[in-house]
Design brief:
Blueprint lengths: L1 E5 L2 E5 L13 H11 L9 H17 L5 H7 L6 H6 L2 H7 L7 H11 L1
Length: about 120
């Protein structure tokens, strides 16, 4: 287990960088995860990116599953490829959203979508 620090906040993540307690997520946690996942110095979470993250969290809370990638942008009223444009990789968005590591089948599904 690792601990990230952001604005005096201690954030516990697993060895792969996934938030240990997905319910402990807030915008500051998202900023810390963004810096780690995207290897940037500043938090770059625009309103559009936050909408995507919040939708993914709400979907997970309801269904305990990864949302259908093509539906995310439609649900947040953004252009069809918003997830790839804003995050490049949907798994990165999932991680920044503070959600648990997806099952292996999700990784396969995402790879299929990318090809």
């Amino acid at each position: 287990m690792q601990t990230l620090t952001y604005k005096d906040k201690q954030i516990k993540v697993d060895d792969e960088g996934y938030l240990i307690d997905w319910k402990a997520w807030d915008e500051e946690v998202a900023c810390a995860l963004t810096q780690t996942v995207e290897d940037v110095d500043e938090c770059d979470l625009t309103e559009e990116r936050m909408e995507i993250l919040k939708f993914m969290r709400d979907y997970y809370k309801r269904y305990e599953a990864f949302p259908i990638v093509r539906s995310v942008c439609r649900k947040v009223h953004q252009p069809a490829e918003c997830l790839y444009e804003r995050f490049i990789d949907p798994i990165k968005a999932w991680k920044i959203a503070g959600l648990p590591k997806p099952m292996t089948d999700v990784f396969s599904y995402i790879q299929h979508e990318l090809s």
